[in-house]
Amino acid sequence: MHTKIPTPYRYSIPEIALVVHDAPLSSPYNHATDVQEKIEQQKMKQKKAITSSLERYYNDVYKLLLAKLTDFDRAAVVTNTDSTRLEALVRELIKVKSLLEIGEQQSE
After folding, report:
1. What angle do CA 14, 19, 25 make, to 5 degrees?
2. Of the four, 48, 57, 69, 79, which is 20 to 30 A from 102 by CA?
3. CB under 8 Å, gap of 24 or more: what pairs does 105-108 form?
4. What are phi and psi of 75, to 5 degrees?
5. Does 53 reside within a domain?
6. Rounded distance, CA 102 to CA 94, Å?
């Protein structure tokens, strides 16, 4: 015959203690490993987003350089400002290209 536990003692702490994130403690579930994997996945997503943004920026600067270079070639008079702007665009391309190469090396 079952005896009833007095009302103040009826709670479900043993059930809560056996469950961590909807998985029993006896299962092969390792919370630390799962969290680490999710962190690594987030890092990879961020790296991909940054790389994608850098690639788009590189393409935009490259197109701008080509347009400015065409204007420079067709100009009757070349000013110091025009040459300085072209140099700045080339430096920017070199900088972004090196950042993209660094990102590729780190992802390997």
Report:
1. 105
2. 69
3. 106/47, 107/47
4. -70, 140
5. yes
6. 12
- Whether 19 is covered by a domain: the verdict is no
Q: Which among 20-29, 39-48, 62-71 has the top mean pLDDT?
A: 62-71
Cα 7 to chain centroid distance, Å, stands at: 53
Please report whether residue 13 resides in a domain.
Answer: no
User: Which helix (H) or strand (E) element contains residue 23?
Assistant: strand 23-24
Least confident segment among 21-30, 56-65, 99-108: 21-30
CA distances from residue 59 to 52, 89, 95, 101 in whole angstroms, order as listed: 11, 12, 13, 15
Helix, strand, or coil (residue 102): helix
- Give the position of tokens 């400002």: 81
Query: Residues 64-81: pLDDT tens digits?
Result: 999 999 999 998 888 899
